[in-house]
Design a protein that fits this description.
heterodimer; A: alpha/beta; Rossmann fold; B: 316 residues; transport (chain A)
Chain lengths: 321, 316
């Protein structure tokens, strides 16, 4: 089963002892079956909160406003039980760190059998057969033997393959990969990206890839959303974002990507300033305090969402559509 | 794993030897002559000399220890000074009662404490969690002699549901079970609290680990996450706690058996110490230490069985 995903005016607050942290503010994103969507931004920009909200895994102190409609169902207003039934069935998450993603005292096979618990029509041996087939598909040799392994007996790259296999086993309509390569070394990263590219050819659901690594996004995604301090500041097709960025933050981010410098530099460029305090976000544009071309309304008026082309948007006073 | 087991057993034997050396030294250092205490002030010097020779107390301490171990290896733990019966027979008569008491208490404490701890985690932050927390700390704070005496008053004197003393009629399981309830309760009650707190604390930690998030992201039901994914890890500190705590369970058995007049190792030791019946004291201590050491080893091996990471550390 596949269907479209749309988050509309999605805001998430975390109630903490030090006040309420507005981790996500008025986010609009959409994704259609067959698309690979990238979400990019620096640490603390809200990418993890966004995917956690999409995967229905927000902690108890999170307050959600707005809507996340997936396949015609609003996930925000779903009761806890139905939300749990969606997880690992319609929506699967490949989590950030493959080193800690699996239970250390249970074998991989045992866990992957459990993860197929929605498939009441299969018995244990059928589930095991599916696992073996899926492990082979994600490039793990001697799958039967590997199923008997404990997580600590496997390498990081192999564990990430296992995590991807686990997610694919549930036949999800929405597959979310939260920083799938961040914890891996460069060689492993290349292999996992290669694997994800292979998989997307035969997969017809939605894939959402979260990364702070621009290269990963460029290689994998059709469209990308750039996030800053809990807001989507720019969104569009990968080519448009990488070659024709309009938002000053996107430009600054691209300018800081070390992979784009042909020569060795003494110092890597950075974006001056720090993230705004999300307990009391500024009144105007969220990026105003670090922006290189602050205009008159930037400090006081929330910038409009400017439509630059069919699917290229930017939230900035300085761009015109 | 085998090397690990052998190492642990070797260490256990070393502990046994050490305990017996300390015991013999203690006997040697305690003021008063055992023979005079045993025979009373009007004993003749000949009689005293005879008793001292029979207990082997005229020999140097190190020789006594060597003799003790040489005999122990052949299954001879010495003879009761008064009845002249073999100590091993006395121990074997008393031991089943104590083991039944200890195992029942521990099993009850685990069967109640572990689910209570899990329930606290599933319902964390709710009234149920708070009530379990207060009750756990409460029962830990109540000394077991208070539980023993008050349960005697309530169940044996006022309500007359349970027998006040003894271990029940031989061969009658119902009567034996009835006699077991109160002593087991006295020992287990505090442990229920300990285990519930311990399981809750270690499970709360485990529940914050990323692999639990993975299990959640696959939509596994909460009870399955708690009982399979978290408990398998969270139970490990509890196993260590219980294994170490068995020592204190066996020592509570000493006075619980006294309060409820239950025949058992506890009573055997108390009586033997009071009458300075050294062979019985030594034999019993050796057996109790051996049991304690074996349980600690069993717990370590069980932990290695449960946690493949521990198992791999000791793989050769």
């Amino acid at each position: 089963m596949t269907g479209s995903l749309a988050a509309r005016d999605l805001s998430v607050r975390y109630e903490t002892l030090h006040g309420s942290v507005q981790a996500l503010r008025h986010v609009d994103i959409e994704a259609h079956p067959g698309e690979v969507i990238g979400i990019v931004g620096e640490s603390g920009c809200g990418k993890s909160t966004l995917v956690t909200a999409l995967a229905n895994l927000l902690p108890a102190n999170a307050r959600v406003e707005g809507s996340i409609v997936y396949h015609g169902v609003d996930l925000v207003n779903l009761d806890a039980h139905r939300r749990r039934l969606l997880r690992g069935d319609e929506i699967a998450l490949v989590s950030q760190d493959p080193m800690t993603a699996f239970n250390p005292v249970l074998t991989i096979g045992d866990q992957l059998v459990d993860f197929q618990h929605h498939r009441k029509d299969l018995d244990r041996s059928q589930k095991k057969a599916r696992i073996a087939a899926m492990l082979t598909r994600v490039g793990i040799s001697d799958a039967e033997q590997r199923m008997k392994s404990y997580p600590h007996e496997l390498s990081g790259g192999m564990r990430q393959r296992m995590a991807i296999a686990a997610a694919l086993l549930t036949d999800p309509g929405l597959l979310i990969a939260d920083e799938p390569t961040t914890a891996l070394d460069v060689t492993m990263e290349a292999q996992i990206i290669h694997l994800l590219r292979e998989l997307r050819r035969e997969y017809n659901g939605i894939i959402i890839v979260v990364s702070h690594h621009l290269g990963v996004i460029a290689e994998l995604c059709d469209r990308v959303y750039v996030m800053y301090a809990g807001e989507v500041v720019e969104g569009g097709e990968v080519d448009a974002i990488f070659h024709d960025a309009h938002h000053p933050y996107t430009r600054a981010l691209l300018a800081c990507d070390p992979a784009r410098f042909p020569d060795r530099l003494e110092r890597l460029p950075t974006i001056p300033g720090t993230l705004p305090n999300l307990t009391e976000p500024p009144a105007g544009c969220i990026y105003a305090s670090r922006c290189e071309r602050t205009l008159e309304p930037c400090r006081n008026v929330v910038p409009p969402c400017v439509k630059l082309s069919a699917c290229h948007i930017a939230r900035c006073h300085g761009v015109c559509g | 794993m085998l090397t690990y087991a052998i190492k642990r057993i070797g260490l256990g034997l070393l502990i046994l030897t050490f305990v017996m050396v300390v015991m013999y030294t203690a006997v040697f250092l305690v003021p008063g002559d055992p023979a005079s205490v045993a025979l009373g002030p009007r004993a003749t010097p000949e009689l005293k000399k005879m008793l001292i020779e029979r207990m082997g107390l005229d020999q140097p301490v190190w020789w006594q220890i060597v003799e003790f171990f040489r005999n122990a290896l052949t299954g001879n733990l010495g003879y009761d000074v008064w009845s002249n019966r073999p100590v091993s027979t006395l121990v074997m008569e008393a031991l089943p009662n104590t083991l039944v008491l200890g195992v029942t208490s521990l099993a009850a404490a685990l069967l109640i404490g572990v689910p209570l701890g899990c329930l606290s985690v599933v319902r964390r932050g709710t009234a149920a969690d708070a009530i379990i927390g207060v009750l756990s700390v409460g029962v830990i704070a109540v000394p077991s002699f208070v539980v023993a005496i008050y349960s005697l008053l309530l169940f044996a004197v006022t309500l007359r549901w349970l027998p006040a003393i003894g271990a029940g009629e031989t061969g009658d399981l119902v009567s034996q079970a009835k006699a077991l309830v109160m002593p087991a309760l006295a020992i287990a009650l505090g442990w229920i609290g300990y285990i519930a707190r311990m399981v809750r604390a270690s499970m709360m930690e485990v529940m914050g680990e990323p692999h639990i998030r993975t299990a959640r992201s696959f939509g596994l039901p909460e009870w399955k996450i708690v009982s399979k994914y978290a408990l398998r890890i969270a139970i490990i500190p509890t196993i260590s706690l219980v294994a170490v705590g068995l020592g204190s369970i066996l020592s509570s058995a000493v006075f619980v058996e006294a309060v409820f007049a239950r025949p058992g190792i506890g009573r055997l030791v108390t009586d033997a110490v009071n009458t300075r019946n050294y062979p019985v004291v030594m034999g019993t201590v050796l057996i109790m230490t051996a049991i304690y050491v074996s349980i600690t080893i069993a717990a370590d091996l069980l932990i290695a069985r449960l946690d493949p990471r521990v198992r791999d550390v000791f793989r050769d």
